[in-house]
Amino acid sequence: MPSKPLPQPTPETKPYWEGAAAGELRIQRCRSCRHHYFYPRRGCPHCGSTDVEWTAASGRARLHTYVINHRPAPGFEDDAPYAIAVVELEEGPRMMSNIVGIENSPESLVLDMPLEVAFESREDMSIPVFRPAPYSSEKP
Amino acid sequence: MRAQIAIVGAAETDTVGVIPDKSELELHTEAARNALGDAGIDLKAVDGVAAAGQSPITVAYNLGITPSYIDFTAVGGCSFLLHVRHAAAAIAQGLCEVVLVTHGQSGRSRVGAPPRSRDRSSPQGQFEAPYGVTGPPTMFPIGVLRYMHRYGLTHEQLASVAVVQRQWASRNARAMMRDLITVEDVLASPLIAYPMHLLECCLVTDGGGALVLTSAERARDMDLKKPPVYVLGTGEAAEAPLVSMMADFTSSKAFEVASRLAFEEARLGPADVDHLMIYDAFAHLPIYGLEDMGFVPRGEAGPFVAEGNTAPGAGLPMNTNGGGLSYTHTGMYGMFLVQESVRQLRGEAAAQVPGVEVSVALGVGGMFMSAGALVLGTEAAAGS
């Protein structure tokens, strides 16, 4: 069976993938306008400043939207049908991810449900995914 | 620039659908010859060439043209609407006189088609591909559940987009899918990527189309076979290269900006539009487009379509060729939007709407990545 696709980091995204390998979801924050942003790049998309820093995100997120794919990508045959989701991090940015630890069905996957980051090992890399979180907090 | 430029030739490839015996390049050049024949213009008059997918240089060379204006804007399925916009500006500035815009794509048969590349270091390769995206069905509709959650759009209303467009396709002999369908048929078709069923996803076909543009002034001096179609307003815009980075999953920023620019230049609004084409790679696109262009208030496009307002005989005829869902979808479908707008304005469409003076085409590129909008009109609309 083919294996799941692996990302190939660039110099700009390396800290993100190194963070994932260390079990940490690292995103960038602008020192000038204080916004967090994703995906990694050298300048802030909110204000244009290049005075940005890496920070560990809380890992808490909410399920923003998704599809459930019935035609699996190579490597995902055993997972199908599986959700391809967009989650909204507590810090604000959104990212694509998979949802683990819960049946990937329309009934189980409720929009805005609380999630927390988990990491899936794939060869020598670690891919951030999300699972249902036990905590609850006010919707942002 | 309003009405200074005209489309004087427009044609598709001899057939659309399944064309296993022609390469992608040949589809470009066949469409080009057909469009020049439609205009009654000699190849030698063409001094500008625009194309996407295949290089305009190759297209020009294959035809025997030495272009002095070249546009290789390739931003997905709406590229050709941007080509029209750029050509209008270039002609108005005197950079060129007669521009040929070509599309050809062997989307289904993959004859002479470039391989699809997968770059693992691109933003998509790093931040989407690892999560098992395959093709557009796993990405383009990712915001639909958010839209449903926010506005109460039902699965039945979404399905009605495909149902209504099939009504149009049933009137078009060139359409690939012509048998009438019901909401129940759509919802009973296989799930491709929930909430999208097979019949809510576009076709995958072969085909092409081309346009010939020149100044309105020159068009008046030409011995044209058919009335010119005037470019009243144009717009283009881009949002994010990754669908997961959309600012708002219930609306396309690129749709909004591109259509606003086109309407402003045309000095027209949705109420002035007789005929509408919105790129329907999936059933939710016309819903987003109707709202982003201002035809209906936010959240009301689903009921609007389900109640039949875009169907044959209704007030806002939309996607009258049958659309990407039922007519054809080569991959970069935008060219076919413009072809149908031109046919409706000339009064020669298969499912002709009576009295079309103003037609609007809204194209998308990538997964809500980019957009192009054209407001086109007849001589009467251009003069008003």
Number of distinct beta strands of chain A: 8
The oligomeric status of these chains comes to heterodimer
Based on CA inertia axes, which overall geometry of chain A fits? Answer: globular
Which two protein chains have the largest interface (Cβ within 8 Å of the partner's Cβ), and how many residues from each?
Answer: A-B, 37 and 35 residues
**Which class of chain B in CATH terms?**
Alpha Beta
Helix content of chain A: under 10%
Major sheet details of chain A: 5 strands, antiparallel
The count of DSSP E runs of length 2 or more, i.e. the number of strands of chain B, is: 11
| Shape verdict of chain B | globular
What's the alpha carbon Rg of chain B, rounded to whole Å?
19 Å
Counted by DSSP, the helix tally of chain A is 1
* Derived structural class of chain A: mainly beta
Order of helices and strands of chain B: EHEHEHEHHHHEEEHEHEHHHHEEH
Overall mean pLDDT of chain A stands at 95
Radius of gyration of chain A: 16 Å
**N- to C-terminal separation of chain B?**
14 Å
The run of helices and strands of chain A is: HEEEEEEEE
Strand content of chain B: 15-25%
Beta-strand proportion of chain A: 35-45%
Describe the structure.
The complex is a heterodimer of chains A (140) and B (384). By secondary structure, chain A is mainly beta. Chain A has one domain. Chain A is built from one helix and eight strands, in the order H-E-E-E-E-E-E-E-E. In chain A, the strands form two sheets. In chain A, strands 6-5-4-7-8 form a five-stranded antiparallel β-sheet. A three-stranded antiparallel β-sheet of chain A has the order 2-1-3. By secondary structure, chain B is an alpha/beta fold. Chain B has a single domain, classed as Peroxisomal Thiolase, Chain A, domain 1 (3-Layer(aba) Sandwich). The mean pLDDT of chain B is 97. Chains A and B meet through strand 4, strand 5 and strand 6 of A and helix 4, helix 5 and strand 5 of B. Strand 4 of chain A pairs antiparallel with strand 5 of chain B, so a sheet runs across the interface.
